[in-house]
Task: inverse folding
């Protein structure tokens, strides 16, 4: 046999045998058609004009609608229809699918052209020869089954391995008891009913000692479990599944086991701090069934994940894997590229000039009041602003839907709006990705835990219903690091109304922290304020991870801010 490179392909389609099952006028119109080689399928629907669908166009084959006699003519010339309403033509790869009415009568046919394309797997031949299990992903019609058929032939004929094909719909090796030559020396096991595919998979391993098992369209939990059982016995698996990318399988509870499965894990305090995440995170449950995955974007452009486990782990941490992109050049050679990670874009924001604490005349240091504190010199802030991520740190799609439980919705919405976070505060728990609650409500709150269990939602708890704690909790949910204590706070976060009195008092507290407490390590007393404004100042101080207390009698009650001596 002549070995073909990626660019050298041979196509056999047995098209005359498919045209022979059509009523003579329809078959004759396609026999000499100029686009014959591009024919994809023929559609016969009762009462409608017959259609021929090509790669780039659709044409009517006659001006007379399809009759019941025309449908019966075609049905009589194909094999029996199985439980999935598919039939074939013996020793060809063509597939005929039926549409039925409520009484079970056939009222439509889709006659899909089956082609054996030799030389399609040159892009991933090295992966096939590695002996590791490979999962092919891609939209319908991109060529998954064609590639599967060619892989089976190469493994059986050229690598001399014992290959068994689980052919549920006879789509890989064709209809009839004798398989199509396109699979080479590979053996084919037919499946009586689609729901029995997982049983035939196990039977193949137990009875026929295969080195490789080829499976098309893994679609149920039992089939995914059977695939894992086969892989654990040391058999190489080559399979396909519906889904364009690995992320689709991760979000599909039925097929997630193919890439290792996803589970919610509660981390200890120490581990959560080390990772810089919340305590409830998503992690891969087990080693993936398939070590490699190929995303078939187009017929000549495939994305290859050489390590599925590593790709899944990165996606669960909110990072994008960098797989290989393989394509075919004009000369037929395979081109392998690896895209560079998107660089972070930095934006410099100017900081408005602010008066010093002494110029404001609104605060006094507690100790050494006669000594003028030196004014701290602050450099301009350089803030890194990244493109908004498409997934959260645990694989959730953004914007993240947060359901507040005993948490101030007003504070929550104000924080999201002011900081421009990719979060939606929802009242519908069915739409939520996570529950945000207070730590005090989590203790012994069986109703909340039951609610989270029913909806399969993680719970994120914060210490208090303060703006600082809410902001910190939202940052943790998005995997954003907390700002350093010296970083200026957005005063509008802590002022519900934004009045001049509130902003003036908050600015007083900010200047005290940034120009005395943190740089000089001195405690500071603020001017007397109302209880409402003191509460806002307390929340602002908490943002800087400092301690404050109120002292004195009304109307002269005021805040005292203490430095953090542990720093």
Result:
């Amino acid at each position: 046999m002549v070995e073909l490179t990626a660019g050298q392909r041979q196509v056999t389609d047995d098209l005359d045998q498919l045209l022979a099952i059509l009523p003579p006028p329809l078959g004759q119109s396609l026999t000499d058609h100029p686009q014959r080689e591009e024919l994809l399928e023929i559609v016969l629907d009762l009462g409608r004009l017959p259609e021929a669908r090509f790669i780039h166009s659709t044409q009517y084959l006659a001006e007379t609608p399809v009759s019941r006699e025309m449908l019966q003519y075609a049905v009589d010339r194909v094999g029996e229809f199985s439980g999935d309403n598919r039939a074939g033509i013996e020793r060809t790869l063509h597939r005929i699918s039926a549409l039925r009415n409520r009484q079970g009568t056939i009222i439509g046919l889709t006659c899909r052209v089956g082609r054996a394309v030799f030389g399609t797997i040159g892009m991933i031949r090295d992966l096939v020869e590695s002996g590791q299990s490979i999962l092919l992903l891609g939209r319908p019609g991109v060529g998954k089954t064609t590639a599967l058929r060619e892989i089976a032939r190469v493994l059986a004929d050229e690598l001399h391995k014992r290959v068994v094909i689980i052919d549920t719909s006879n789509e890989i090796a064709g209809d009839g008891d004798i398989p199509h030559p396109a699979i080479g020396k590979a053996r084919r096991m037919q499946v009586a009913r689609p729901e029995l595919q997982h049983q035939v998979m196990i039977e193949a391993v137990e009875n026929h000692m295969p080195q490789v098992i080829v499976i098309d369209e893994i679609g149920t939990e039992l089939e995914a479990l059977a695939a894992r059982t086969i892989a654990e016995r040391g058999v190489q698996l080559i399979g396909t599944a519906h889904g364009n990318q690995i992320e689709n399988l991760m979000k599909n509870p039925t097929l997630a086991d193919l890439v290792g499965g996803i589970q919610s894990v509660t981390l200890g305090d120490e581990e959560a701090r080390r990772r810089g995440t919340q305590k409830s995170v998503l992690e891969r449950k087990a080693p993936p069934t398939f070590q490699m995955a190929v995303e078939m974007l187009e017929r000549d452009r495939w994305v290859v994940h050489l390590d599925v486990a590593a790709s899944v782990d990165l996606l669960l941490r909110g990072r994008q894997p960098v797989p290989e992109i393989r394509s075919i050049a004009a000369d037929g050679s395979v081109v392998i590229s690896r895209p560079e990670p998107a660089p972070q874009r930095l934006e410099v924001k100017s900081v408005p000039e602010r008066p010093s604490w002494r110029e404001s005349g609104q605060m006094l240091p507690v100790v050494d009041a006669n000594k003028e504190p030196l004014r701290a010199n602050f450099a301009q802030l350089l803030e890194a602003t990244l493109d908004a991520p498409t997934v959260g740190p645990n694989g959730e799609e953004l914007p993240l839907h947060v359901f507040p439980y005993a948490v101030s919705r007003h504070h929550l919405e104000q924080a999201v709006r002011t900081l421009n976070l990719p979060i939606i505060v929802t009242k519908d728990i069915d739409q939520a990705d996570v529950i945000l609650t207070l730590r005090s409500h989590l203790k012994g709150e069986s109703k909340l835990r039951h609610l989270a269990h029913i909806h399969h939602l993680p719970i994120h708890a914060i210490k208090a219903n303060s703006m600082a704690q809410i902001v910190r909790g939202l940052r943790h949910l998005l995997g954003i690091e907390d700002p350093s204590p010296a970083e200026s706070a957005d005063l509008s976060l802590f002022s519900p109304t934004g009045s001049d009195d509130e902003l003036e008092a908050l600015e007083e507290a900010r200047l005290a922290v940034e120009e005395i407490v943190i740089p000089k390590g001195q405690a500071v007393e603020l001017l007397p304020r109302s209880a409402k404004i003191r509460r806002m100042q307390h929340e602002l101080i908490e943002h800087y991870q400092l301690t404050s207390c109120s002292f004195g009698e009304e109307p002269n009650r005021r805040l005292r801010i203490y430095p953090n001596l542990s720093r």
